[in-house]
Amino acid sequence: MVMSPQPLAALDTLDAGALADAIARGHVSAREALDASMARIEQTDGRVNAFTGRTWARAVAEADAVDARRARGEVLPPLAGVPYAVKNLFDVEGEVTLAGSKVNRSNPPAIADAFLVQRMQAAGAVLVGSLNMDEFAYGFTTENTHYGACRNPHDLDRTAGGSSGGSGAAVAAGQVPITLGSDTNGSIRVPASLCGVWGLKPTFGRLSRRGSYPFVHSIDHLGPFADSVDALALAYDALQGPDPLDPACHAERVEPTVGESERGIEGLRIGVLGGYFHDHATTPARAAVHAAAGVLGAVDVVEWPDPALARAAAFIISAAEGGSLHLQELRARADEFEPLSVDRFIAGALQPGDWYLKAQRFRRLYRDRVQALFQGWDLLLAPATPVSAPLIGTESLEINGRMQPCRPSLGLLTQPISFAGNPVVTAPTWPSGTGGMPLGVQVIAMPWREDLALRAARVLQQAGVASLKPANL
Amino acid sequence: MKEAHILDYVKASAVVMGLPVDEARALRVAEHLQRTAAMARLLEEATLEVSDEPAEVYRLPRPSGGGSGGGR
User: Fold this and answer.
1) Do A247 and B57 touch (CB under 8 A)?
2) Cα A232 to Cα A20: distance, rounded to the nearest angstrom
3) What is the spatial distance between Cα B33 and Cα A149, in angstroms, rounded to a whole number?
4) Is residue B18 situated within a structural domain?
5) How many CB atoms lie within 10 A of CB A94?
């Protein structure tokens, strides 16, 4: 096989899609791509703290296997040789699934990869490690006491967001072009917004959660982060597939989006969420949506039904299910839990049953109201976070003249959407008034229509309104 | 529920649930539960009929027709 050697530095300019293409064409080897990724991690992660574990022996074996397949003339799968990493709540064979905690350290190593890790491996991607997160995914800032805070690559004094903070930061830092995370109340969309990368929270029930450590069974979603819309679509397509062994996976078939996302937005009815989503957004967040709306021709302001009630219900269900899930450990080892969330877990475990049941009964009505809204719209836009990344350790922040607790407020605009379960692409925009920090826009579609959100995302990318910017590390 | 009642509730229910909670922790937990109680009061606004069942293992219907330009 003849390779056209490419300087490692040049790989920095390739997004994941272009990298996969370069590997498939033999312009760069999978091993070279992996070496570049590992070098970048070595160079930057002492400051970013995105990684909690490195699977480099496995990565070398996977990369070499890709290069061997190419040498044999095989047609490579779509992500062949592309390095990626996963939030440390995904099972990785032979590794302990920490889920950001100390108490899980004594658990035995996973005996198999999570379903989605298997899917990525089947697509040829190369797993380089596991990523920092809030303990048991209960947080929006990844200020993890056990493993250290994950820092925002665009300003190391600021939070990367959470709970999938490592997943957002690793892509923003150029360590890997694709990562996987989870989103219960905003944990993909918040770090994507604060780190300035693309993120996709798919439809609830679309992707199998088998082999991932749960937070809230009723609301947990898994999904990808990426450095471009094409890469996001490639990863999402690779992750899709029915899983009869996961009772919460309702996907019936793979519905590919690669190619679909090139169809543009002609004929799509796109609106902008007002009311609650305007009132809880600061000026830069509104500006981010305004810029996206301008490109997408979205003029009409739309009212989302009962967002405050939905947030309340999501809050109650998250606390109750999270508290119940960890009750045994809270009884025996509460002092080993994350100080920032242990008292919330205990409070959740003590909630009256009436609160939880009312929240679940409300959810059914809410789902119908939200889906009725989408009879008139294909896509709706809203800010992903009220503000850009706060400084690490911030306790409260001002949103339109009102002081709010910082950490829960980062999910104000994401919680009502994930409670409905609709798919959302978070587009990385860079509005003025943030000191150069990013702030994402949610592109929200009707259930099972991730393709529509990706089509609009691609238009935003092509127009230059949404994109990654290199982190100065 | 008033703050003192919440604190009493935390202490009593923690015993029932077998959760060791000292005074300092009880105060912090009560603060969180107070916030959740406000959320629960908000949710009281939702009109629920006796026939409104909880969400099942949550599942979303596929759109029937739906979008004007969104056909595959």
Assistant:
1) yes
2) 13
3) 26
4) yes
5) 13
Q: Is residue B61 a part of any domain in this protein?
A: no
Domain assignment present for residue B53? The answer is no
CA distance A299 to A327: 48
Give pTM, 2 decimals. Answer: 0.94
The CA distance from A409 to A344, in Å, is 15
What's the domain count of chain B? 1
Closest CA to A66 of A52, A47, A84, A79: A79
For residue B71, count other CB atoms closer than 10 A to its CB: 8
Among A267, A268, A358, the residue with its CB nearest the CB of B43 is: A358
Domain membership flag for residue B14: yes
**Which is the catalytic residue, given A130, A163, A164, A182?**
A163
Taking only residues 92 to 121 of chain A, the set having a beta carbon closer than 8 angstroms to any beta carbon of chain B reads none
Give me the residues paired with residue A83 across strands: A126
Q: Which two tokens stand for residue B67?
A: 């979008």
Q: Which residues contact B64 (CB under 8 A, 6 or more apart)?
A: none
Query: Domain range for residue B19?
Result: 3-47
Residue A111 CB neighbour total at 10 angstroms: 9
Which tens digit of pLDDT belongs to each residue from A9-59? 567 778 999 999 999 999 999 999 999 999 999 999 999 999 999 999 999
In chain A, the percentage of residues whose pLDDT exceeds 90 is: 96
| pLDDT tens digits along A447-465 | 999 999 999 999 999 999 9
Q: Would you call B58 and A266 a contact, using CB atoms and an 8 Å cutoff?
A: no
Cα–Cα dist A96/A91, whole Å: 8
